[in-house]
Design brief:
Blueprint (H helix, E strand, L loop, with lengths): L1 H29 L6 H55 L4 H6 L36
């Protein structure tokens, strides 16, 4: 009886050894960095790092774009104010009909004034009415 118990005990030990050997090989394949879950974890970790770098770059680009857009918006608001001021100044200029009623003598350029300088008595901007006149242009 002892002999049978010893044989069964040895068979159990050999079976446990084979089981541990097979389990060890499977565990090594499982943790392999190229094919197993270890490789998948390593790849996912690398992808997370790449995504973090891309996210930081995108945030920096967005911040620069927002700053540029803010500056352009301020410039556009300033230009809008200037245009509104010029449009308001145009309303103060007399119309063509009132200019015909009181004609002004043309000012001839002198040697001291160049033709490119403006005469302070003549307006910089003039409003033209859409009335039909005798000349067609």
């Amino acid at each position: 009886m002892e002999l049978i118990a010893d044989i069964l005990l040895a068979a159990g030990a050999i079976g446990a050894g084979v089981y541990c050997f097979v389990l060890g090989r499977r565990l090594n394949r499982f943790n392999d960095l190229e094919k197993g879950v270890g490789g998948a974890v390593a790849i996912l970790s690398a992808q997370v790092d790449d995504l973090n770098r891309t996210l930081v770059a995108a945030q920096q680009t967005a911040a620069a774009s927002a700053q540029s857009l803010t500056e352009l918006t301020k410039r556009a608001e300033d230009m809008s104010r200037r245009l509104e001021l010029q449009m308001a100044a145009l309303h103060d200029i007399p119309t063509a009909a009132s200019q015909k009623a009181a004609p002004q003598a043309p000012v001839a350029p002198t040697a001291t004034t160049s033709p490119n300088t403006t005469n302070p008595s003549t307006p910089m901007f003039a409003r033209r009415s859409h009335q039909t006149t005798g000349d067609t242009a």
